Amino acid sequence: MVELANEERDSAAGADARGELASIQKLLGDIEVQTLLNGEWDAHPAEMLQRMYLRWAEQHNYPTTVMDTSYAEEAGIKSTTFEIDAPYAFGTLSVEAGTHRLVRMSPFNSAGKRQTSFAAVEVIPLIEEAGAIEVPESDIRVDVFRSSGPGGQSVNMTDSAVRLTHLPTGIVVSMQNEKSQIQNRAAAMRVLQSRLLILQREQEAAAKKELAGTITASWSDQMRSYVLAPYQMVKDLRTDYEVNNPSNVFDGDLDGFISAGIKWRKRAVEL
Predict the structure, then answer these.
(1) Helix or strand holding residue 242 (H, E)
(2) N or C: fewer beta carbons within 10 Å in the chain?
(3) In angstroms, how far is CA 271 from the centroid of its own chain?
(4) How far apart are alpha carbons 41 and 114 in whole angstroms?
(5) Which letter does DSSP use for residue 150 in this model?
(6) Cβ-based burial of 33 (10 A; exposed 0-12, middle 13-18, buried ≥19)
(7) What tens digit of pLDDT does each residue of 23-72 get?
């Protein structure tokens, strides 16, 4: 269609053809990513990136803790979670979030073909979790009633059952298993505190997710390419910052990329 439009010098047909071409290219890109992510070598970039960031932290004397690692069936790792404890760690490293693309000679192909694989990097802040949940009395409505058994029959002639309603959240907890109102209230309060702690964790997780954004390993979300073959180069696709020594980068030499990323982010916000 493009060739015919060019021959006929039909600008309208050319525009339609180019639009169709762009749609096809995007579809092929998505299919290529899905194919690559099902490959046997996809575990390896994650391990290389983990080592890169841990080496960067080591060079800056930042304490690190590997919190979780999921290993691949063949070799390498599928995913990893680690903590870097340093001032401004989140603000500094958040520019590293996105899809990292690795191009190299395939270690699994005797013919020496090139392979392209992807790994997603997500950066989230550490939000301190309260060890205990304090519930002000003004936030609670207390209702007492008689304990009931099967069929609604009364099993306690006194108003020993307790219902606590947490007014800010609407969470309701009832307790009637204990013999006294005091015991039921204490038990209900423990359950309420547990539910509030879970709610707090969910809210913190949502806040982290909002700060980190949704990061998936996709062709369209690339932010950096590591090319090891047929030439050697590491390039940030947002800032155009690049170096020709990937081995140094994989050994933790990231300051240039991070600095360029922070400046790029500031300019993007100003715009």
Answers:
(1) strand 242-243
(2) C
(3) 26
(4) 12
(5) G
(6) buried
(7) 777 666 555 544 444 444 344 678 899 999 999 999 999 999 877 777 77
- The token pair at 246 is 């990937």
Q: Give the residue extent of every domain in the chain.
A: 2-36, 40-122+215-270, 137-208
Q: Are 211 and 125 in contact (CB under 8 A)?
A: yes
> Which of 32-46, 142-156, 169-183, 256-270 is predicted least confidently?
32-46
Q: What are the angstrom distances between the C-alpha of 148 and each of 160, 161, 175?
A: 10, 9, 11
Cβ pair 100, 224 in contact under 8 A: yes
* pTM, to two decimals: 0.58
**CATH architecture of the domain covering 137-208:** 2-Layer Sandwich (3.30)
CB neighbourhood size of 130 (10 A): 10
